């Protein structure tokens, strides 16, 4: 008899990510990933307990693309580079965005990125509660901005609807929305992060 097939977590995560990229988040299941791997669903349970674990493997795989070495330069520039590395990695697999907040606390690649961020904040002289709040603020911006871009991009229908509001009733909102429609996602992300850094004094 042939020996049972042996799989690595990377192979399983790669198959799950392929399903996610091709068919979207709703299609991700033990059955579809098993099919992607060319095996029966019950055989996959030998390696992964449920969809929640699958999701964590996918998030970890996507975030593994982030370079977690500490950049050179002033603290603000280093933090900007680290934040942008997350945006670039995630933008290659936008369907993973809804999973980020649920799994970022426990996947190794996210934890390593967090340690690098905290290293830069510490080098900048932040300690104790100030460092904790600064880190939380940065994490909230990075992952929150990715969610906003995914579910309501400036180029999308929501901004267009605001731009079409009657200017006599909503002059500033309609004008701002009309201008916002032409802002590329990377410019929105980076300029927003610059504002955050100024608020942190970095």
From TrEMBL:
Q: Which GO terms describe its molecular function?
A: DNA-binding transcription factor activity; transcription cis-regulatory region binding
Q: Which part of the chain engages DNA, per the record?
A: 29-48
Record has Transcription regulation as a keyword = yes
Q: Does the keyword Transcription regulation apply?
A: yes
The UniProt entry, under PROSITE patterns, shows: HTH_TETR_2
Q: Which UniProt keywords apply?
A: DNA-binding, Transcription, Transcription regulation
Q: Which InterPro entries match?
A: Homeodomain-like_sf, HTH-type_TetR-like_transc_reg, HTH_TetR, Repressor_TetR_C, Tet_transcr_reg_TetR-rel_C_sf
Q: Where is the HTH tetR-type domain?
A: 6-66
Which GO biological process entries does UniProt record here?
Answer: negative regulation of DNA-templated transcription
Protein name as catalogued: Transcriptional regulator
Q: Which organism is it from?
A: Amycolatopsis methanolica 239
